[in-house]
Amino acid sequence: MNNVKKAELEDYLDCKNIMMEIHDFHVENRPLVFRKNNDILSFEEYKTMIDDNFLFLEKTKNQTIGLVYFKIVSLEKSSLMLGKKVLSIEILGFDIRNVRMEISIKQIN
Question: Is residue 107 part of a domain?
C-alpha cells in the first residue's frame, strides 16, 4: 500500500533522483528547450520547498515513487479579474520504473 506524506529532510536524495529523472526525460525529448544539468536540486532549494509546507511524496514501504510540489499564488484584483488565490502545481513527478498504470486519489491531511 502506498502512503502520501509531507517531505522531510531525509527524503532529499529520493526527491533529487526523481527530479533528475524528469529533467533527463525532458532533455532527451525536447533538446531545443532543455539543457543537460546535473545540479538539478540543491539541498538549500529542497529545504525551502519543505519550509513552504507544499512538498508531498508518495511512498511505498521501501522507496519514494512520486512527488508533488505546489504553491498558493495570489492573483491581483484588476479591471478584468477579481483578486483570488489559486493552487499552482509547480512539479509533478513519478519514478516511471515503479509506477503502474493506475490512478489513485488520496486525501492529504
Answer: no
Backbone dihedral angles phi then psi of residue 4, each to the nearest 5 degrees: -100, 130
What CATH number is attached to the domain comprising 55?
Answer: 3.40.630.30
Query: Do the Cβ atoms of 86 and 73 come closer than 8 Å?
Result: yes
User: 4, 58 in Cβ contact below 8 A?
Assistant: yes
What does the pLDDT look like over 5-41, one tens digit per residue?
889 999 999 889 888 888 888 899 999 998 998 888 8
Expressed as residue numbers, the domain containing 13 is 3-94
Task: Please give the tally of structural domains in the chain.
Answer: 1
SS3 8: coil
